[in-house]
């Protein structure tokens, strides 16, 4: 009986994790544009040597489908740097993506998901899976450099629902 309960719990956990709890459906038009990274547990943003990070999405057509041109822009030692790739939607809701690097980074790939958004698409919580070079983690991104108090409270509530032990650090934007 205990095994059955454990297996049931494990299956329910997996279903809950792999599906967006609020059944988010997005268009590429809603995702495109500039998103500032406001909170994260990603080591690249926490070390302090890379500042003012943003995600910048542009819709492009490739073959018979649409993809997102993905440019991560940040500053290091006073110079603007970027990491460029392409995001391929893995579901019809446009919430689950496979990122592929561009150029020399073409051999790299990572998987990420939009797990929560605000109704007006002013912020998103993004989960990224572990790769050979990066740990799994979360970013909170928004259309504004700084989150309003109301948005911070709602995001904290959503993060606790995802994982009560999840702790993200504030990423300062200038």
SSE succession: HHEHEEEEEEEHE
**What is the strand arrangement across the widest sheet?**
1-2-3-4-5-6-7-8
How does the major sheet shape up? 8 strands, antiparallel, barrel
Number of domains: 1
- The CATH architecture assignment turns out to be Beta Barrel
The Rg value, from CA coordinates, equals 17 Å
Helix tally equals 4
Give the rounded overall mean pLDDT: 89
Find the structural class using helix and strand composition: alpha+beta
Report the β-strand fraction as a percent range: 35-45%
The CATH topology annotation reads as: Lipocalin
CATH homologous superfamily label: Calycin beta-barrel core domain
Number of strands: 9
Question: In one word, what is the shape?
Answer: globular
Q: Poorly predicted ranges (pLDDT <50, ≥5 residues)?
A: 1-21
* Portion in helices: 10-25%
Instruction: Output the CATH class name.
Output: Mainly Beta
Report on this model:
- This protein starts with a helix and ends with a strand.
- It contains 4 helices and 9 strands, in the order H-H-E-H-E-E-E-E-E-E-E-H-E.
- The model is unreliable at 1-21 (pLDDT under 50).
- The chain has helices at 2-18, 28-31, 43-46, 149-162; strands at 33-40, 50-62, 65-76, 79-89, 96-101, 109-117, 123-128, 137-142, 169-170.
- The longest helix has 17 residues, at 2-18.
- The protein is globular, with a radius of gyration of 17 Å.
- The chain has an 8-stranded antiparallel β-barrel.
- It is an alpha+beta fold.
- It has a single domain (26-170), classed as Calycin beta-barrel core domain (Lipocalin, Beta Barrel), CATH 2.40.128.
């Amino acid at each position: 009986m205990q095994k059955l309960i454990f297996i049931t719990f494990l299956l329910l956990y997996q279903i809950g994790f792999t599906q967006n709890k609020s059944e988010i459906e997005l268009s590429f038009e809603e995702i495109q544009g500039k998103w500032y990274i406001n909170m994260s547990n990603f080591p690249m943003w926490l070390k302090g040597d890379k500042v003012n990070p943003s995600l910048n999405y542009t819709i492009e057509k490739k073959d018979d489908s649409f993809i997102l041109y993905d440019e991560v822009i940040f500053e290091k030692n006073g110079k603007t740097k970027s990491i460029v790739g392409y995001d391929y939607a893995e579901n019809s809701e446009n919430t689950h993506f496979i990122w592929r690097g561009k150029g020399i980074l073409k051999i790299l790939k990572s998987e990420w998901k939009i797990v929560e958004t605000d109704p007006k698409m002013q912020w998103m919580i993004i989960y990224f899976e572990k790769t050979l070079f990066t740990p799994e983690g979360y970013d909170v991104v928004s259309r504004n450099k700084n989150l309003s108090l109301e948005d911070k409270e709602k995001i904290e509530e959503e993060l606790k629902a995802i994982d009560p032990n999840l702790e993200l650090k504030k990423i300062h934007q200038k």
